[in-house]
């Protein structure tokens, strides 16, 4: 099972050049992220890895990193290729946690999308890929407001092929 988890604004933006614009402002989303990803394997891109001081606890933290990237920080394990990694872990629960480039690389193989929909347009420079035709909405929770930021949780499931 491959799940992608992301927080996106109304333009599907995930980050600007300074990182995630709403970082630290919506603790309920941070807790939701921790809860959802608590079981399974984490896969992240190198750009996202650079923003982590330490790995997510009690989970394996894999990073798509070129072989010349050097030694990673303690608790992170480098993998050379996302597609090969997903081939090898086809029977595991894998969470792709970003960033934009890795979401784009892995969307075509995703079973479910866990999206936090953040209200407004933060003029992001990095985006989650367009996805709606291939997926159908499974659930949409009531909105929260924290630090002036409105957001709600959605889960999307890949549409089953017609028989
Ligand atoms: N809103 C959210 O839910 C969310 C979630 C996660 C992350 N983010 C944000 O997304 C942003 C990162 O996204 P991103 O698309 O830039 O990167 P990413 O998907 O995290 O990582 C992939 C990128 O890393 C680069 N890279 C640099 N050094 C590398 C190395 N040694 N090995 C392999 N790849 C390397 C690659 O660029 P080249 O191949 O061109 O060098 C590739 O485009 C961050 O600002 C993060 O805060 C947002």
Based on the coordinates given, report the CATH architecture.
Answer: 3-Layer(aba) Sandwich
Distance between the termini: 21 Å
Distinct bound molecules: NADP nicotinamide-adenine-dinucleotide phosphate
Beta-strand percentage range: 25-35%
Topology pattern, helix = H, strand = E:
EEHEHEEHEHEEEEE
* Tally of individual domains: 1
The CATH superfamily is: Dihydrofolate Reductase, subunit A
**Distinct helical segment count:** 4
Oligomer: single chain
CATH topology call? Dihydrofolate Reductase, subunit A
- Describe the global form: globular
Biggest β-sheet: count, sense, barrel? 9 strands, mixed
Task: Write a structural description.
By secondary structure, the chain is of the alpha/beta class. It has a single domain, classed as Dihydrofolate Reductase, subunit A, CATH 3.40.430. The chain is 17% helix and 33% strand. The chain contains four helices and eleven strands. It has helices at residues 27-36, 46-49, 82-88, 100-106; strands at residues 2-8, 13-15, 41-45, 61-64, 76-79, 94-96, 112-118, 126-127, 135-140, 144-146, 149-158. Strands 1, 3, 4, 5, 6, 7, 9, 10 and 11 form a nine-stranded mixed sheet that branches. Strands 2-8 form a two-stranded antiparallel sheet. The longest helix has 10 residues, at 27-36. It is globular. The two termini are 21 Å apart. The model has no long low-confidence stretch (mean pLDDT 97). NADP nicotinamide-adenine-dinucleotide phosphate binds at residues 6-7, 14-15, 19-20, 45-48, 51, 64-66, 69, 97-102, 126.
